[in-house]
Specification:
elongated
Length: 130
C-alpha cells in the first residue's frame, strides 16, 4: 500500500490538474472505476491482517507494534472516508482546483500512515526469530 500511496500522491493526483476541463469528468469516472478494485481489496487485507495481529497476539510480535500498525490502518480508512471520498465525489461533476488541492493535501495523511505502517511491519519482521 505504501508504494501505491506514493504513486497516487506524486503521479496520479497531480496529473488530475493536467487532464483538461472538457475531458476531466470522463477521466475521473475511469480513474474511479479502475482504481477501486485495485485499492479496496488491499486496504481490506491490510486492515484485516492488522486486526488479526492484535487479536491473535503471536508471541513474536510486540503488542505495541501490532496496535500501532492497526492504528495506522484505521487512520487510512478514516482519512479515506472522511476526506478523500468526499473530494472525489465533488470531482465527479467536474474539475475544481480548490477541491483538487484539498484532495492532494489530505492524501498526505494516508501516504504518511502507510509509510509509518511499513516501518512498523519492518520492525516486526526484524524482531521475528529466524
Amino acid at each position: 500500500m505504501t508504494g501505491l500511496g506514493y504513486l497516487v500522491q506524486f503521479v496520479a493526483y497531480p496529473l488530475f490538474a493536467k487532464v483538461g476541463r472538457e475531458s476531466f469528468t470522463d477521466y475521473h469516472a475511469g480513474w474511479s472505476t479502475r482504481i477501486s478494485p485495485v485499492v479496496a481489496p488491499m486496504m481490506i487485507i491490510e486492515l484485516g491482517s492488522s486486526a488479526w495481529l492484535v487479536a491473535a497476539h503471536p508471541e513474536f510480535v510486540s503488542t505495541g507494534l501490532a496496535v500501532s500498525g492497526l492504528v495506522c490502518s484505521v487512520a487510512v480508512w478514516a482519512s479515506t472516508f472522511a476526506l478523500q471520498v468526499p473530494a472525489h465525489s465533488k470531482l465527479e461533476s467536474g474539475f475544481d482546483a480548490s477541491v483538487h488541492r484539498r484532495l492532494v493535501r489530505s492524501s498526505w495523511l494516508r501516504t504518511l500512515a502507510w509509510t509509518t505502517h511499513s516501518v512498523i511491519v519492518c520492525a516486526m519482521l526484524a524482531s521475528t526469530p529466524s
